[in-house]
Structures are given as structure tokens and as C-alpha cells.
Write a structure and sequence with these properties.
The complex is a heterotrimer of chains A (about 270), B (about 290) and C (about 400).
Chain A lengths: L1 H32 L20 H9 L2 H32 L5 H10 L5 H14 L6 H5 L6 H12 L4 H8 L4 H12 L1 H17 L2 H6 L8 H11 L4 H21 L1 H11 L3
Helix pairs in contact in A: 1-13, 2-13, 3-7, 3-10, 8-9, 10-13, 10-14, 12-13
Chain B lengths: L2 H35 L1 E4 L4 E4 L3 H7 L2 H32 L4 H15 L2 H11 L6 H8 L14 H26 L3 H9 L6 H28 L3 H6 L11 H10 L4 H29 L1
Antiparallel strand pairs in B: 1-2
Chain C lengths: L1 H9 L4 H4 L1 E7 L4 H17 L3 E7 L6 H10 L6 E4 L4 H6 L7 H6 L10 H6 L1 E2 L2 E2 L1 E7 L2 E5 H6 L9 H11 L5 E5 L5 H13 L17 H16 L2 E3 L9 H4 L3 E6 L4 H6 L5 E4 L9 E2 L1 E7 L4 H15 L1 H11 L6 H4 L2 H9 L1 H9 L3 E2 L7 H16 L5 H15 L2
Parallel strand pairs in C: 1-2, 1-3, 8-9, 8-10, 12-14
Antiparallel strand pairs in C: 3-13, 4-5, 6-13, 7-10, 7-11
Helix pairs in contact in C: 3-15, 9-11, 10-11, 10-19, 19-20
Chain lengths: ~270, ~290, ~400
């Protein structure tokens, strides 16, 4: 069918073109980050003329990026681990155990997904201020340790696992706690990977929370540090882009490593 | 204790950590938010004075609030339908098992995982008045581009442009999942009935079958658009002259620039009500479908 | 020997535990000013073996307000804060600052009279001193000398009319004559206040609880800015970044308004020849005295006393001269300004001398708790007027109404 074939060539070309258009900003960021600092005065275009790797080390040293990376890592990893644990436990209970008020409780907890942190920032701020947690890791970590998305993900996931896998363990007299950690958790690895990706990337990219809850440079995360760096180096686009590149690398690399889980996570639940 | 009782206790204990955290940091704050919105609160000396609805009347009397409402509505009304149309088109275009198409899908999804701070800074550079790539390209076509981020007229379109770029891949994935859920037998049946592939199949099969996904994407997009903040913070700081101050940005300004927590809480309460109404509508709609 | 050891033991816990730890928050993110301060803090810590002062950076001084409020609300404020003195009254009123009057009175090693009285005034509310001067500065016009020569301007403009004319003549070949600060933050307001005063206007009425900037002088000042935009001879800075020298240094504009702290930066840039002249005058000459002070937050007597030691260290002639010479900031004390070292420095650095001489026409922002809110209101309305949303008159009358509400 020649008509069909021509169609697919068109489709090919347009798909390619669209992808290229979408990649232009990222490409431009890379080219600029490697340009000669004087070059940015005239614009850098899309064809790299220089590959000046020193821009990266210069940008890295221009401000306290190592501390900010450390802060972001601590926050993102702790929050991610915490969310995985709290979601696994709750998800297992909701999927497997009958108890009074289960459906109501599940609905109440899941409905929290629609309330954006931006809307609740004032009362959360009040609570954290009363705890004297402002400008500390506690403020950045504790409020994010549980999340409706994770509960939903694991509740759904555990419902797909056949009961038989647990039965034998109960016959041996194992507790729910042991079954969860020894049988269900190993089975839930794909869902754990999905939640890990999602939460880590979301936490790594978070701006609003550290912006509101921290005050000094030693508590800044990478994204917040980047906005401060932008204020200082507003017109030095070469170093600005270099900083943007290394602040973006962790989440993008993680995404490339686990694309499948990532996309499946969105497709099955629809929400971050 | 019977097995069932033991199980119930275990269940409550399992739900406890998540329940407690969500209770303290989401559910209780919702009540606290309404409470603060009825008070004048000086965060420095921690005094709360009951002022009834004074905060609400103050924001209703503030031009800045209405400007933020208009900006939020504009932002949502443009990004949601345009973004959905782009994402649907991309999903239809890239719905293929070919490996190469998988790579292209990855390319389109990369903006989603870059932080909005990074993306915002990159767009500030692309939108630079005389050195930026966008005005450079326009100049090539003989068009003298505006000074995007410093123009009251063009700052919002610029922020929207960046948003569309960043979010397109996300909704595309949702649409792809929806497309793949449509059984191929439906298409085959249609073909036997004489429907030509292309527009006709799309109109008769794909669109109606995809409708639940579309509706879901709509709700998610509205909620995302509603809480947009980072882009404005990085690209325009809500300016110039408040032209990109959305409601979330207005709350941020009120609370953390002017220290007026009561009024900020009043605006947040209204936003919360809107989000809840929207979700309720979606819930009702779904039930009717089923 | 044994008695000596015994004596040591009686001295109690080891030095590490004896130390009083205090924090200083400042806004110097990087560059030479930050390095000089770090070196000075090291020196302070060596001189005071019982105190350990640690500095933390809060970033842009323009955006500190909410962050500091959060820290105070969370009961984790710093011991010392480096910030513009116009901001202290809000915190003094909230009762979180400690007055230093008793320290001054009881400290025989400190002479209050050595510091300029006008600077003490900036840090005083209801007769009590809460903020001690760290350094002083004011605003002047920085210009590209080569562009002036090319435009045939051999004498810096002295009046508004001459300034407007110069800006127009300098606007050519893609270069703009002047860069106006834009954005709603304090920088815009601070700069505009100079023009208000030059036109003979006042921010507040003499009772300091009613706006006065909406009077004809204010309208003239705002109209003057608008006329520069209308002439096409002024461009806007990037939003909230009016303090950036980049556009002047890269040759995109010929004149900007800025301060002496750029000295190190300018000395580094040998490729452009930058000169300075006093702000133009209208009915009178005026500039805005700025600089930073140290605010002392309440804690416990030991920490408060340690913090006072640092305040005193900063006001000492030794610190002031070193700091002024390294950074371009103006010294806060007569003894520092009169040292031979500083006088020689002024002879070699005409840029700083312009600022130093301008101190005689310097005015200061009012030390009232409402200033930050007032500045935010003014900033928004000045921006709206410059963007042509309101006439100068309407913008200022709207701003006046909002400001008057602050005092109700």
C-alpha cells in the first residue's frame, strides 16, 4: 500500500521534527554552558564553537553548591525512603486487611492528594514555626514523609498480588508485619522503584518548600541555590547554564535509568 | 484476641504513620487555614486577633487580588486546552511500537523531569531581548520580537510558552496509556464497517473511547496550572506590574513579603474551596459515567 | 608546677566548652566584600578566645524580610543581623531586638561620639539605639567615560535638565543613555527617594504618620523618570536588579545609579573607564544615605554581650579603615575617616571621594516600623507608573492612600 507508506514517512518526519523542537532549549542550554564567557554577549546560537569545561568548575566554586547538593541529597533521600516505608505499610493494610472504617479512611487519606502544598503553606508554616523547625532539615523532611500518591500506588499494587503467596506464611504462623517485609516487599520492587523515582525527582526539583521554610545559605537546596545564583549571575549566562546543567543532571539521569517505572507510574495513577 | 482482631490492630498500626503525618500536615492545616483566615496574625509577636471576615473584604477590595484571579484564569484557560491539544496530538503521533519512537517519546518527556527552576532559567536565556534564541529566530524571519519578560503584554505568553514545553510530555504519557487501552478489535470492527483510517476513525472510535482519559487529563491539568509558582518566581517574580502574579504567587507575596498571614490564608481558603469543588465535580461526573 | 596544673583544673571546662557561640547573618554572597568580611571574622575570633562567631549568608538583602520573619517566628533568629537600618524598627517594635544603650553606657572602651551622629539616628527608635552602624554609603551616577567623550559631553550634568539632555545625547548606536532601576523592591524605592528629595519633597509629613510623597514634588520626581523613558533615553534594568553594574560595564548603557561598594569590581575591570558624579540636583541636591547596621537580637546575657563585642569590633577605626579601603564603603567614624591611610586612599580613588563629599547632602529613610511595608507599596506604584499603567499623580495618590492606612 503505497499511500500508507507515504503516510508513515510523513509521520516519521513530523515526529522527528517535534522531538527536535522540544530538545532545542536543552541543546541551547548545553551549548551555552560550554561557550566562552565573552561569547554570550552576542548570543551563542545552536552550533557549539567552544567546549569550555572550566565553566562547570567555575560555576561550582562560585557559590556553595557542594553544600546545597548535600542538602538536596539528604532531604530527597530521606523523604523518599520515608514515603516508601509509610506508603508500603498503609498500602498493605488497605489492600489486604479488613478493618472498621477502612474505605472511609482510605478515601480521606487519598483525597489529600488534591490539596497542593502551596495552598497549605501558611498553616504548615505556623506548625513548623511553633516547633522551631524553620530553617532546619526537620522542616524540609518531616511534612513530606507521607503522601497519598504512594499509598494509592501500593494499595493498587498489592491488590494485584495473588493471596496464595501469603497463605503459606500464615500457615507457618508469621505475623502481618513479617509477611509485609519478607514476602510482599520483595514482590513490590517495581512499585517501589516507581515511587522512588517519582518522589526523588519531585523532591530534588522542589523550590517552593525550601524557599519558604529556609533562610540561610547553609540550609539551601540545589534549586533554591540556583535561584540565588541566578540573582547574582543574572547576565553571565554561560556560568548560569553550567549551574543549571549540574543541578538538572541527577533527576534526568535517574529518569533515563528508570524510564519504564516512571512512565508506568504516571499511566497507572495519573498523578505525581 | 481473635485473628480478625489482631489483624485489625495490625492494620491500624500500619496505617498510623501515614495517617498521622497526613493528619498533622494536611488535614489539620486545612482547619487551621480557615481559622487563620478569620484572624489578623502578626507572625513576629505571634498574636492572633479575631477579625471575622475582614480579611476577605480586604482582599476583595484589593485590585491586586482581582488581577491575580484574572491572571490565574487566563493562565489556566490557555495552558489547559492548548496543552491538552498538543499532548493529544503528540500521543497520536508517537503511538507506535517502533523503538525509534520510544526514543522520541523520551526526548519529549525529558522537560518534565527537569526542574522548573532550571527550565525557567533556560527560558529566561532563550527569551532574552537581543541575545536570546527566540528573538534571534524571529529576526531571521524579519520580525522584531518583544522584550518578553519585561513587557506587561508578553510576560504571560512567555511563561505560558515555557509551561507548555515543560508539561507536554506529561499529558502525552497519560494519553498514550489511554490510547493503548483501546482494544485493537474496536478499530478492526470499524474498518470492516468501512470507516477510513485517519480523521473518521479518530472521530468515531478514538475520541469517544479516550474520553475518560481526556477528562482525567483535564482535571489534572487544571490542578497543576492552578498551583503554578516556580515558573513565575524564576522568570518574572510575578511582574512586570503584577502581570504574571497568579493566585499562588499572590499568596506568597502577601504572606512572605508583606507578612499578612490572615489575608494570605483567606486567599488560600478560597483556592482550596475551588480545588475541592473541581474534584467533587470530577467525582460526580465519573460516577455518572459508570 | 603542680600548683599551676591545679590552677588550670580550677579554670573549669576546656576552652571548647567555654566558648559562647553566636551567629551573624549577612547578605554578602560572594566576591571581595565577602572574603574581607570572612578574614575580619577570623581576626575577631582569634582576638576573643571565648567567643565563636559564625557567619551565614541570607542572600539578596531585598528579599530578607519574609525569611527573617520566619526565623523570628520560629524562634531561631541570628544573634546579629547585617541589614539596612531602615528595617530595624519593625523588629524593635515586635520586641525581639535588644537595645545597646546600656552596653554603650557601661563600656569605658567605647566612645559613642566618634561615630557620626546621623548614623546613630538611623539606628534609634523611641530614644533607644537598636542598630549600630557597620558601614555607610550613598548613591551617585556611574558613567562610561568614553561614551561621554564620544557624545561631546565634557562636564558631568549637574541639574535634572542637564541630565536629561545628556541622557538623550548618549543614546545612540544601540546604547541607552541611562538605566532606570525597575522592579518593586527597595532598590527602586531607595533610588527614587533621592529624586523626591531633590524636588523638595518629603516621604512623610513631619509627624511621620502620614504620606507626603504624593505632593507636587513627588509627581515631579516621578514625571522626571517617566520623561527619560518617553525620550527613549532610559531603559529599564532587569526586574529587581537595578543594582547590577553589568549593563554599564558591557557598554549597553552609559549611566546608572549605584554605590561605592562597586570599587573592587571597577578596579578589576580595566577594560572600561568608569567615572562617578553626584546625583543631579533639582531644587536642591540630595542623595540617600545607606549602608548597613548590625541589629542585636535578644537571647541570653552571655550571647548578647558577645554580640556587642563584635559590634564594637566593627566600629573600631582599625576595622573601619580596612573595610573601607578594601570595599569602597564609607567609614562610620570620624577617627577612621581622618586617618592618614584613609585620606591617602581618597586621594587615589576619586570614585569614593565623590560619595564621601556627597555625605553632606545625604538624607536618610525614616526609622519607623512601617517603612518596609511603605517601601513595598511605593515600589509597586512606581513600577506601575513607569509602565504607564497610571499617571504619576494617580500612582502616588493611590500609594499615599495605602500608606496612610498603615498608620491607622
Amino acid at each position: 500500500m503505497p499511500a500508507r507508506k507515504r503516510m508513515s514517512v510523513w509521520r516519521w518526519l513530523s515526529a522527528l521534527l517535534v522531538a527536535i523542537v522540544f530538545l532545542v532549549p536543552i541543546w541551547s542550554m548545553l551549548v551555552t554552558s560550554l561557550a566562552n564567557p565573552n561569547e554570550a554577549g552576542t548570543g551563542t546560537g545552536l552550533i557549539p564553537r567552544t567546549l569550555r569545561l572550566e565553566n562547570y568548575s567555575e560555576a561550582w566554586q562560585a557559590t556553595n553548591f557542594s553544600r546545597q547538593f548535600l542538602n538536596s541529597l539528604i532531604v530527597a533521600l530521606t523523604v523518599t525512603a520515608g514515603q516508601i516505608v509509610t506508603s508500603l505499610m498503609a498500602g498493605y493494610a488497605f489492600a489486604r486487611i479488613r478493618f472498621f472504617g477502612r474505605d472511609t479512611l482510605l478515601m480521606v487519606l487519598l483525597s489529600t492528594v488534591i490539596v497542593p502544598f502551596q495552598v497549605l503553606v501558611i498553616p504548615v508554616f505556623v506548625i513548623l514555626a511553633k516547633l522551631s523547625w524553620i530553617n532546619s532539615y526537620w522542616a524540609l523532611i518531616v511534612p513530606s514523609l507521607a503522601n497519598a500518591f504512594g499509598i494509592f500506588l501500593f494499595t493498587q499494587f498489592f491488590q494485584t498480588i495473588p493471596y496464595e503467596l501469603e497463605e503459606a506464611a500464615y500457615v507457618d504462623g508469621a505475623s502481618r508485619w513479617r509477611v509485609l517485609w519478607q514476602i510482599m516487599v520483595p514482590l513490590a520492587r517495581p512499585a517501589i522503584a516507581t515511587l522512588f523515582m517519582f518522589t526523588f525527582v519531585a523532591e530534588w526539583n522542589e523550590l517552593f518548600k525550601p524557599l519558604v521554610l529556609t533562610s540561610t545559605n547553609n540550609m539551601r537546596t540545589v534549586q533554591l541555590g540556583l535561584t540565588v545564583f541566578q540573582e547574582q549571575f543574572r547576565v553571565d549566562y554561560v556560568h548560569l547554564m553550567a549551574a543549571v546543567v549540574f543541578a538538572t543532571v541527577p533527576s534526568v539521569v535517574l529518569f533515563f535509568l528508570g524510564q519504564k517505572q516512571f512512565v508506568r507510574g504516571i499511566a497507572t495513577t495519573g498523578l505525581r | 484476641m481473635t485473628r480478625g482482631h489482631r489483624d485489625a490492630v495490625a492494620a491500624y498500626l500500619f496505617v498510623l504513620p501515614a495517617g498521622l503525618l497526613l493528619g498533622i500536615f494536611v488535614i489539620y492545616p486545612i482547619c487551621e487555614l480557615c481559622y487563620v483566615s478569620l484572624h489578623e496574625w502578626n507572625i513576629l509577636d505571634d498574636r492572633m486577633t479575631y477579625v471575622a471576615t475582614a480579611n476577605y473584604s480586604a482582599i476583595f477590595a484589593d485590585d491586586g487580588f482581582w488581577q491575580a484571579v484574572v491572571n490565574t484564569v487566563t493562565f489556566t484557560a490557555v495552558t489547559v486546552p492548548v496543552g491538552m491539544a498538543i499532548s493529544l496530538a503528540l500521543a497520536l503521533l508517537l503511538d507506535s511500537r517502533l523503538k525509534a519512537f520510544g526514543i522520541l517519546r523520551t526526548a519529549l518527556f525529558t522537560p518534565v523531569v527537569t526542574s522548573s527552576v532550571a527550565a525557567g532559567i533556560v527560558f529566561v536565556w532563550l527569551l532574552n531581548d537581543d541575545r536570546g534564541l527566540i528573538n534571534g529566530t524571529l529576526r531571521w524571519f524579519g520580525v522584531d520580537g518583544p522584550n518578553w519578560l519585561q513587557s506587561e503584554t508578553w510576560a504571560m505568553p512567555a511563561v505560558i510558552l515555557m509551561w507548555l514545553w515543560k508539561q507536554a510530555g506529561y499529558n502525552m504519557v497519560l494519553f498514550l496509556a489511554g490510547l493503548q487501552a483501546i482494544p485493537s478489535s474496536t478499530y478492526e470492527a470499524a474498518e470492516i464497517d468501512g470507516a477510513r483510517p485517519g480523521w473518521q476513525t479518530f472521530r468515531l472510535i478514538t475520541w469517544p473511547q479516550l474520553w475518560p482519559t481526556t477528562f482525567f487529563v483535564l482535571v489534572v491539568s487544571v490542578i497543576f496550572a492552578f498551583r503554578a509558582f516556580d515558573q513565575m518566581y524564576v522568570m518574572t517574580r510575578g511582574g512586570p506590574v503584577g502581570s504574571t502574579t497568579t493566585l499562588v504567587y499572590y499568596v506568597f507575596d502577601k504572606a512572605f513579603k508583606f507578612g499578612d498571614m490572615g489575608q494570605a490564608a483567606a486567599v488560600s481558603t478560597l483556592m482550596l474551596a475551588m480545588v475541592m469543588a473541581l474534584t467533587w465535580m470530577q467525582f460526580r461526573f465519573r460516577h455518572r459515567e459508570e | 608546677m603542680l600548683t599551676w596544673l591545679a590552677g588550670m583544673a580550677c579554670w573549669g571546662p576546656p576552652a571548647q566548652r567555654r566558648q559562647v557561640q553566636i551567629t551573624l547573618w549577612h547578605g554578602m554572597e560572594s566576591g571581595i566584600n565577602n572574603r574581607v568580611l570572612a578574614a575580619k571574622i577570623d581576626q575577631f575570633n582569634r582576638l576573643h578566645s571565648d567567643i565563636l562567631l559564625e557567619a551565614q549568608v541570607y542572600g539578596a538583602a531585598d528579599q530578607l524580610g519574609p525569611k527573617l520573619d520566619a526565623a523570628v517566628a520560629g524562634r531561631t533568629p541570628p544573634d546579629l543581623l547585617w541589614w539596612a537600618p531602615a528595617y530595624f524598627p519593625k523588629y524593635a517594635k515586635a520586641g525581639v531586638l535588644r537595645s545597646v544603650d546600656d552596653f554603650i553606657a557601661q563600656d569605658p572602651t567605647f566612645s559613642k561620639d566618634d561615630i557620626y551622629a546621623s548614623l546613630w539616628e538611623l539606628g534609634t527608635m523611641d530614644g533607644e539605639v537598636y542598630a549600630t552602624p557597620f558601614s555607610a554609603n550613598n548613591l551617585a551616577v556611574y558613567y562610561n567615560k568614553a561614551m561621554f567623550a564620544r557624545a561631546g559631553i565634557d562636564r558631568p550634568p549637574q541639574t535634572w535638565a542637564e541630565f536629561r539632555d545628556a541622557a538623550a545625547r548618549l543614546t545612540r548606536d544601540g546604547v541607552s543613555g541611562f538605566q532606570l532601576p525597575i522592579g518593586t523592591s527597595e532598590w527602586t524605592v531607595w533610588t527614587w527617594e533621592c529624586f523626591l528629595w531633590q524636588a523638595g519633597g518629603e516621604l512623610l509629613t513631619s509627624g511621620k504618620h502620614e504620606a507626603a510623597f504624593g505632593a507636587p514634588a513627588g509627581v515631579e520626581a516621578l514625571d522626571f523618570w517617566k520623561s527619560l523613558v518617553k525620550d527613549g533615553s532610559a531603559v529599564f534594568s532587569e526586574a529587581d536588579a537595578g543594582y547590577k553594574m553589568d549593563d554599564l560595564l558591557s557598554g549597553r548603557v552609559a549611566m546608572v545609579i549605584n554605590g561605592p561598594w562597586n570599587l573592587a569590581l571597577l578596579n578589576d575591570r580595566t577594560d572600561v573607564d568608569v567615572g562617578v558624579f553626584p546625583l543631579p540636583r533639582d531644587r536642591q541636591a540630595a542623595t540617600n544615605i545607606g549602608g548597613e547596621s548590625l541589629f542585636l537580637f535578644r537571647s541570653d546575657p552571655a550571647r548578647e554581650h558577645a554580640a556587642w563585642e563584635f559590634m564594637k569590633f566593627v566600629m573600631s577605626p582599625d576595622f573601619q579603615v580596612d573595610w573601607a579601603i578594601a570595599t569602597g564603603y564609607l567609614p562610620v567614624s570620624k577617627s577612621a575617616a581622618n586617618t592618614e591611610r584613609y585620606q591617602a586612599f581618597l586621594r587615589d580613588n576619586p570614585i569614593v571621594k565623590v560619595h564621601n563629599d556627597q555625605m553632606t547632602v545625604g538624607r536618610a529613610r525614616p526609622s519607623i516600623p512601617e517603612y518596609p511595608a511603605m517601601s513595598a507599596i511605593l515600589g509597586r506604584h512606581i513600577e506601575a507608573a513607569l509602565y504607564g499603567k497610571y499617571s504619576s499623580e494617580e500612582a502616588l495618590s493611590r500609594a499615599s492612600a495605602d500608606v496612610d492606612r498603615l498608620f491607622q
